[in-house]
């Protein structure tokens, strides 16, 4: 008999929730983690730290007060790096403790060390502080996550050049910053540093920000980022990086256009690679892609039936939210638990820029491509009493409905609380709701959620079907 029913490699959101789901069903579970702290990217270098820093940046900058009092406040005081990082350190420690409690509460053992697969049922764990261990399991869950991709052009290791892990260890706030990559990480950090009053330039090789967003929302986000003081340079890449030896001298980046940018610090956010190196997956017959991502079927089973892989290690969408769900589905599939067979068909995206953007379902561009007839309903936060009260007058809720059935097809929000607000629309999408749901629902007043009713009425108005 194997030592465990399930051996999990990695204690990020995928590993934690996969382990807990199996343990809740009475399975014997062990989690192998190579770091001295649990929680992976989500707790330590990604989700939780960056979202905490966003709140700190908003607080230190007094930015929220600007909309309320129409005053151009500068920083409440000259923020130091320890001001900036103080809450980030606190919140991530609390999250690490929560994970340890959660695993202990469900009787999940944690083994410290780097895991690799010796065969399809055996994980070898190596660490500098303990003898090698061999853990056998009926099933193996690979949840090893991802790491920042480091293009060879950049001299990482220099205190002025960071990836998204190292930016959490900066010695001092930059006097100016160039962010390379206008993906989610690049946009979120560009906004945070700009909110602190730091001049930020963002260089993105594509012609727009976050092309998976609805075009209107992507353009609106770009406008709001420019209003925050961020210089957006699209369709360009960095071709040369000169880092002078004098620590105070600026770093010089030469762009593909020939333009040069002198900057105090650089943040490179040009994608991530899956953590599969040294795991021994290929030797077992498990396929991995160009950035290391493991190939899985919709139940997250690899080519080796009792080896599953979930979270960032399988690539897109590479979110903490989806990683946890993938782990639940994999474990339920492995042990024949529950009824869920695949990941939900509609997934939300929450982007914690300033302002936030969130979406679920289809974009206008996708509907046009599929030749689906649709009508758009918009409600601006400026015409929403709560929007006026909180001073967020640039926000927008945009709903896409099928032109004939009036079924909701897509929800897009930009503004304060967008990543929370989207859930009303997400639930409506998952239940196949139409405009009727929003028109007939009594929303709390004054709230931003009430914008759903206004957007639905706006859509009906355009079809001349308004009944209210
Ligand atoms: C800056 C940033 C901001 C983000 N913001 C958000 C957000 O707002 N919302 C959102 O949903 N997602 C966000 N993400 C993405 C999110 O953090 C990841 O999708 C999520 O952490 C993936 O979870 P995971 O469990 O697959 O991997 P990870 O969290 O990376 O955990 C993997 C774990 O496996 C361990 N490990 C790796 N190899 C081995 C080995 N051989 N042996 C033992 N242990 C090993 C690692 O040490 C790590 O602890 C963000 C990411 C970044 C970088
Ligand atoms: N709120 C959230 O959900 C959240 C927040 C942060 C990160 N994440 C996750 O983290 C992952 C990684 O994010 P990321 O932003 O690093 O990667 P990404 O792949 O999403 O974006 C990288 C961007 O860099 C650009 N780029 C690549 N090389 C370039 C170059 N040489 N010059 C200029 N631009 C270049 C790409 O065109 C792309 O837009 C994402 O998959 C995302 O799911 C999620």
| Count of folded domains | 3
| Rounded radius of gyration (Å) | 24 Å
Broad CATH class of the largest domain: Alpha Beta
The amount of helix comes to 25-40%
Based on secondary structure, the structural category is alpha/beta
Outline = globular
CATH architecture of the largest domain: 3-Layer(bba) Sandwich
Distinct compounds present: flavin-adenine dinucleotide, nicotinamide-adenine-dinucleotide
- Separate helix tally: 14
Average pLDDT reading: 94
Question: Distance N terminus to C terminus?
Answer: 67 Å
Q: CATH superfamily of the largest domain, please?
A: FAD/NAD(P)-binding domain
**Total strand segments:** 22
Strand count, sense and barrel status of the largest sheet are: 7 strands, mixed
Strand-residue proportion:
15-25%
CATH topology name of the largest domain: FAD/NAD(P)-binding domain
Contiguous uncertain segments of 5+ residues: none
EC number: 1.6.1.1
GO molecular function, one term: flavin adenine dinucleotide binding
Family: Belongs to the class-I pyridine nucleotide-disulfide oxidoreductase family.
Pfam family, one: Pyr_redox_2
Describe it.
The chain has 3 domains: 4-147 and 273-335, FAD/NAD(P)-binding domain (3-Layer(bba) Sandwich); 161-270, FAD/NAD(P)-binding domain; 355-467, Enolase-like, domain 1 (2-Layer Sandwich), CATH 3.30.390. It is 33% helix and 23% strand. It has helices at 13-24, 40-44, 47-61, 63-69, 81-105, 184-195, 215-227, 281-284, 320-335, 364-369, 385-390, 418-430, 435-440, 451-463, and strands spanning 4-9, 29-33, 109-112, 114-119, 122-126, 133-142, 146-148, 161-162, 177-180, 200-204, 230-234, 238-242, 251-255, 260-263, 265-268, 272-274, 307-309, 348-351, 357-361, 374-380, 396-402, 408-414. The longest helix has 25 residues, at 81-105. The mean pLDDT is 94. Bound molecules: flavin-adenine dinucleotide (FAD) and nicotinamide-adenine-dinucleotide (NAD). Flavin-adenine dinucleotide binds next to helix 1, strand 2, helix 2, helix 3 and strand 4.
């Amino acid at each position: 008999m194997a030592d465990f029913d399930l051996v999990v490699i990695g204690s990020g959101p995928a590993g934690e929730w996969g382990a807990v789901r199996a343990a809740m069903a009475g399975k014997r579970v062990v989690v192998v983690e190579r770091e001295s702290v649990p929680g992976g990217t989500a707790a330590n270098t990604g989700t939780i730290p960056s979202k905490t820093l966003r709140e700190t940046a908003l607080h230190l900058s007094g930015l929220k007060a600007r909309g309320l009092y129409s005053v151009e406040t500068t920083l409440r005081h000259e923020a130091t790096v320890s001001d900036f990082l103080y809450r980030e350190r606190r919140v991530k420690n609390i999250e690490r403790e929560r994970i340890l409690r959660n695993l202990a509460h469900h009787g999940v053992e944690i083994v410290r060390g780097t895991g690799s697969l010796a065969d399809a049922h055996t994980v070898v764990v190596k660490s500098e502080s303990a003898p090698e261990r061999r853990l056998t399991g009926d099933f193996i869950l690979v949840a090893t996550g991802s790491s920042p991709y480091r293009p060879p052009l950049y001299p990482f290791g220099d205190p002025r050049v960071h990836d998204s892990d190292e930016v959490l260890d900066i010695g001092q706030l930059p006097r100016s910053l160039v962010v390379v990559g206008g993906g989610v990480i690049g946009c979120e950090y560009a906004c945070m540093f700009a909110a602190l009053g730091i001049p930020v330039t963002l260089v993105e090789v594509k012609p727009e920000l976050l092309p998976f967003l609805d075009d209107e929302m992507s353009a609106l986000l770009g406008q709001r980022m420019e209003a925050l003081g961020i210089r957006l340079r699209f369709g360009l890449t960095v071709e040369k990086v000169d880092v002078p030896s004098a620590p105070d001298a600026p770093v010089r980046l030469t762009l593909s256009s020939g333009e040069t940018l002198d900057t105090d610090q650089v943040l490179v956010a040009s994608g991530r690679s899956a953590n599969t190196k040294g795991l021994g997956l290929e030797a077992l017959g498990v396929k991995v892609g160009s950035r290391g991502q493991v190939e899985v079927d919709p139940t997250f089973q690899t080519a080796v039936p009792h080896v599953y892989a979930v979270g960032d290690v399988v690539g897109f969408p590479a979110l903490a939210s989806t990683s946890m769900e993938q782990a639940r589905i994999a474990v339920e599939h492995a042990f024949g638990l529950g009824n869920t067979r695949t990941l939900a068909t509609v997934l939300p995206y929450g982007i914690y820029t300033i302002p936030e953007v969130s979406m679920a379902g289809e974009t206008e561009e996708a509907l046009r491509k599929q030749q689906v007839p649709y009508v758009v309903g918009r409600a601006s936060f400026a015409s929403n009493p709560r929007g006026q009260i909180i001073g967020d007058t640039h926000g927008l809720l945009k709903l896409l409905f099928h032109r004939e059935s009036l079924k909701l097809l897509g929800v897009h929000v930009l503004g304060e609380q967008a990543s929370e607000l989207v859930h009303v629309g997400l639930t409506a999408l998952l239940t196949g709701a139409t405009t009727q749901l929003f028109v007939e629902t009594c929303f709390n007043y004054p709230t931003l959620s009430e914008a759903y009713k206004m957007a639905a009425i706006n859509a009906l108005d355009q079809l001349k079907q308004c009944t209210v």
